[in-house]
Design goal:
Blueprint: E1 7-16, E2 23-33, E3 38-42, H1 49-56, E4 64-69, E5 72-73, H2 79-89, E6 90-94, H3 105-115, H4 122-131, H5 147-159, E7 165-169, H6 177-194, E8 197-201, H7 205-208, E9 213-218, E10 221-227, H8 231-246
Helix pairs in contact: 3-4, 3-5, 5-6
């Protein structure tokens, strides 16, 4: 196991279609994501950022190259083995909150453990909701919560199994500025306090500025990498990448 990375991509290539209709979504991308790091992935539409996230998380299989999660090479795992690995070692948060409407916040949070045939304790669920600032909303259903609160429930649900890595796909895309800030504070906090590895796709330079590192993709390749950059710098470099794609 590589103790320096929670997730690693080695020369990952992903294509769709074949022959004249073949489209290359990722073109030989290599990257490592260290334990306790927060990485934002950005790029223009069609740059491959969502494909990278899906391949890194084992939601989509690579065409060539290798992907490792928590020391396990997932490239050749069976569908069943991949399902078990994602259940135990990977957390997901999406732009759509994907909460189950009839269930309470507490029931939504415990759902992954129930599906894995584990019996979460009440203290465990209460602690997860307290971590995201919703200790007093455990009995509320999604329709009784704001968008920001629903996303925080989704984060608590993603973290309840203590995954090696949390993948977030546009987690603030459907939220207002205040709710976005709360969600980003939460993601930053789980990295800083608990050493959680977070990989986030975003189009928002302000959101990306909360990360330790920003990876910029263009035409399926890693075009640039920024460390500790502010939102203005990220926006300027993203514009350069987009102009290069348009050219």
């Amino acid at each position: 196991m590589d103790s320096q990375t929670t997730v690693r991509l080695d020369a990952v290539r992903k294509t769709y279609g074949s022959g004249a209709a073949e489209v290359t979504a990722l073109d030989g991308v290599s990257a490592g994501f260290a334990p306790g790091s927060f990485t934002a992935i950005m790029g223009p539409s069609g740059s491959g950022k969502s494909t990278l996230l899906h391949c890194a998380a084992g939601l989509d299989r690579v065409t060539t190259g290798r992907v490792t999660i928590d020391g396990i090479d997932i490239t050749d795992l069976s569908d069943h083995e991949l399902t078990l690995l994602r259940r135990d070692r990977v957390g997901f948060v999406f732009q759509a909150f994907n909460l189950v409407g009839p269930l309470t916040a507490a029931q939504n949070v415990e759902l992954p453990l129930r599906l894995a045939r584990r019996r979460p304790s009440g203290d465990q669920i209460r602690a997860a909701l307290a971590e995201v600032g919703l200790a007093d909303r455990s009995g509320h259903r999604p329709a009784e919560l704001s968008g920001g609160q629903q996303q925080r429930v989704a984060i608590a649900r993603a973290l309840i199994s203590r995954p090696a890595v949390l993948f977030a796909d546009e987690p603030t895309g459907a939220l207002d500025t205040t709710s976005s800030r709360a969600v980003l504070d939460l993601l930053r906090g789980v990295v800083d306090r608990h050493g959680q590895t977070v990989i986030m796709v975003t189009h928002d330079p302000v959101a990306a500025s909360r990360a330790d590192r920003v990876m910029l993709l263009a035409d399926g390749r890693l075009a640039d990498e920024l460390v500790g950059a502010d939102a203005a710098t990220i926006a300027a470099r993203t514009a350069i990448a987009e102009s290069g794609v348009r050219a």
